[in-house]
Amino acid sequence: MTTGWKASDIPDQSGRTAVITGANSGIGLATARELARRGARVVLACRSEQRGKEAAEHISREVPGALVEFTPLDLADLSSIRDFARSYAYERLDLLINNAGVMALPYGRTADGFETQFGVNHLGHFALTGLLLPHLLRTPGARVVSVSSGLHALSNIDIGDLNSERTYRRWIAYGRSKTANLLFVHELAGRLAAAGSDVVAAAAHPGYARTNLQTAGVRMEGRRAAERIVELGNRIIAQPAESGALPTLYAATAPGVRPDSFTGPRVQGWRGPPAKSWRAAWTTNDVASERLWVASEQLTGVRYEGLTS
């Protein structure tokens, strides 16, 4: 991995199409802007129509001539995910960046009854990737990049309680959802290889980046003191969203990125240029990744046609 890799090192993306979930703010917006700057057609897949359109306008102002568009996508609703996949207007899909996520929310459920963090962070992206798989498979050199977190280390998944119905601890649930992201990439990479596909499935994480992700949970509960502490940490410790996006951009565009790799910031996994990241041993467990895959197919009703175990 090249020392000091930066956004200006992104290869030319002209003629390529990227879908980025949660691209209306934070590292998703920064990722979308840099890919558009290098010539990619970028589809902003966002829940909020207003914020998605504002993000598209923001990118167009910063990158004259940018090929950028908004398409609605609510990862907490399988019907919305299916609508997005049906409406996808392009034959090819070079980059699918599973970036959107929620963190440490109070207990809640998605439209389909899944615990919110597991449902949005893992199951929503599992369903989206499966439904867009035909476009990926027909596109030479396509990549799927799933954004996990160093906080996956908080917990392995509990295959017997994926929706945290027995007990719910918000940070443990978050860690499990981020572990699920890595297990998904591990299993997807193996299945793509077995099918003889050149699609690369990789993972990345932003370290500690300055976004609205950290404050959402405490704001929902009205915990003003906790919100102020988080905001202070964002200002003093966190790196800018633009820096947090670099591991994702590296995994999506740099030459030679290996399947099932995990890229994060170089300096203690918190900040700095992209580098190979540590991951817990449980995230490369073949039995766990297959069991999660089977459970995810059953829960979402999405099958990955052409990819077998």
TrEMBL record:
Q: Which GO terms fall under molecular function for this chain's record?
A: oxidoreductase activity
- Entry keyword annotation includes Transport: no
The identity of this protein, by name, is: Short-chain dehydrogenase
One Pfam family from the record: adh_short
Q: What are the UniProt keywords, alphabetically?
A: Oxidoreductase
Q: Which SUPFAM superfamilies match?
A: NAD(P)-binding Rossmann-fold domains
